[in-house]
TrEMBL record:
Entry annotated with the keyword Translocase: no
GO cellular component: proteasome core complex
InterPro entries for this protein: Ntn_hydrolases_N (IPR029055), Proteasome_sua/b (IPR001353), UCP009120_prtse (IPR016545)
Any Pfam family the entry gives: Proteasome
This protein's name: 20S proteasome A and B subunits
Source organism per UniProt: Methylomonas methanica (strain DSM 25384 / MC09)
Lineage: Bacteria, Pseudomonadati, Pseudomonadota, Gammaproteobacteria, Methylococcales
């Protein structure tokens, strides 16, 4: 499986992904799920992917081929990120239909994408493109999107992230969210990729990759666990004087 997060706050974007594609008993596979698309200088576009690897690779190949061959519709001709998300949805649907009609039983070609970046003078942003081709974007109230195993890392995002959260704090929150997911689900694992994009910079020069056992990740995990334990120990206990007999209902 996988877990990817796209955070869009006032200062810019934070994109985070794990790299595990298979976690069987004796088969652990690693594949990067963060993909930078080489476009014109007036835009920066990054994709995060979850789902069928063959579909993902076919979609990426098509996006890059359309740019190289200067197709009428490609990521360099888009004026808005929403157009790019719609285009990505069409390409993904086409690749899924081709794989679905290949005659392979038990083959599920669905793939989900996070598309994030900035085009020209338009605001930066992030979009979640579903396997069906439709999409949603972030909002002031929910400045993040997730794909893959999202339930384990969602609570910390809901509690910490706000639209005006500084980028560095958003990155820390994303790493804690990722670590929480790794701890609870063996199908998600390092290396962990994180990319920080500063609004209007059109530079992707703040990228980090954390391997298994990385000193910084271990320190982050240890301190987070200690602080959670301290917070739990400080919680008020249930007042035993409020205890009552369990109600027995007559049928």
């Amino acid at each position: 499986m996988t877990y990817c997060i796209a955070v869009s706050v006032k200062e810019g974007l934070v994109l985070t992904s794990d790299s595990r594609t298979n976690a069987g008993i004796d088969n652990v596979s690693v594949h990067c799920k963060m993909h930078v698309i080489q476009t014109c200088e007036d835009r920066k576009i990054v994709l995060l992917s979850a789902g069928n690897l063959a579909t993902t690779q076919a979609v990426l190949d098509q996006l890059r081929r359309d740019i190289k061959e200067r197709a009428e519709t490609n990521l360099n001709t888009m004026q808005y990120l929403s157009e790019a998300a719609e285009y990505l949805g069409h390409v993904s649907l086409d690749k899924q239909h081709r794989h679905a009609n290949s005659g392979q039983n038990g083959f599920f070609p669905a793939a989900t994408f996070l598309l994030a970046g900035q085009i020209g003078a338009e605001p930066h942003g992030a979009y979640l493109v579903y396997p069906e081709g439709n999409y949603i974007t972030t909002s002031d109230h929910t400045p993040y999107l997730q794909i893959g195993e999202n339930k384990y890392g969602k609570p910390v995002l809901d509690r910490i992230l706000k639209i005006d959260t500084p980028l560095e704090e958003a990155a820390l929150c994303s790493l804690i969210s990722m670590d929480s997911t790794i701890r609870s689900n063996v199908s998600v694992g390092p290396p962990v990729d994180i990319l920080i994009y500063h609004r209007d910079s059109f530079e992707l020069n703040e990228y980090y990759r954390f391997q298994e056992g990385d000193d910084y990740l271990m320190q982050l995990r240890r301190i987070w666990q200690e602080k959670l334990s301290d917070a739990f120990a400080a919680l008020p206990r249930i007042d035993k004087q409020e205890a009552k007999d369990f109600p027995v209902l007559d049928h």
